[in-house]
Amino acid sequence: MANLRDIRNRISSVNNTQQITKAMKMVAAAKLRKAQDRMTKTRPYAAKIQDVVGRLAENTNVQNPLVEIAEERSNLLFIIIGSDRGLCGGFNNNLFKEVEKQLNSTFIEQLEAGTISLVTVGKKATAHFTKRKYNVIESFPGFFDSIEYDATSAIMEKATEQFVAGTFDEVYIAFNEFKSVIAQNRKVEKVLPIDPKSFGRNFESEGDTKSTNDYIYEPDSEAILNKLLPLHLNIQLWKAVLESNASEQGARMSAMDSATENAKDLERSLKLQYNQARQSAITTEISEIVSGAQALSD
Prior knowledge:
Elements: H1 4-58, E1 76-81, H2 91-103, H3 108-113, E2 116-121, H4 123-131, E3 136-140, H5 149-164, E4 170-180, E5 183-192, H6 203-206, H7 221-297
Parallel strand pairs: 1-2, 1-4, 2-3
Antiparallel strand pairs: 4-5
């Protein structure tokens, strides 16, 4: 049986770990509230821009390089949004596995041809794909230390310029969509080229009668649409970053809660083991005293 001092040291170590995980859970919960608030405020704005673009595209002959479909789908760009820190369960690994699964199935021809490029956001995404010899053309470690719209839009604007220049035929975003504190949806979405007419709107189900109205646009619908398309792209990446950030905090909060509960179970088990060892030691000492007293009396 283990030495009593060793068991006491283990109990002390587990107790310290439990305090750390409990503190990290509280910090993640505080950050989650802020991240969730930013995310929920962005969702309606992103949806409304998509809705307006869909409205305009219905009655406009769109002539914009952002909607032009390439004859061949060869050069692809993936913007992968991970995290800067770990201790968040399977948040990163599950997304990375989903991306690699799609690369090795849907995009296997481009992968074998070496025409897939990656832009990684976050230290974990950068480390994962760089280690596996993927073509990471740009990385942004430490991105989530200060989440800013300008930094996010700069990434999307550069990808848009490369798409317009013909460097890439399609651009995708991979991220974790926030579903709940304990669940995230892993998504790989194509953002370029844009297909505005595919933006579905169900006005009848929402009781929106404005879909039948005839709008007058100034200067004209095509000019407004051309102005909104780049903004739509920037907002889609910004929304993905906020969704990923909220998902990360939720995953870390859940992981730290599980770690705290596991530490409690381990501490109870060690205390039981300690009491058994202590009782065994006391029983042994009593037996030795009785045996010694018996020997003296004899």
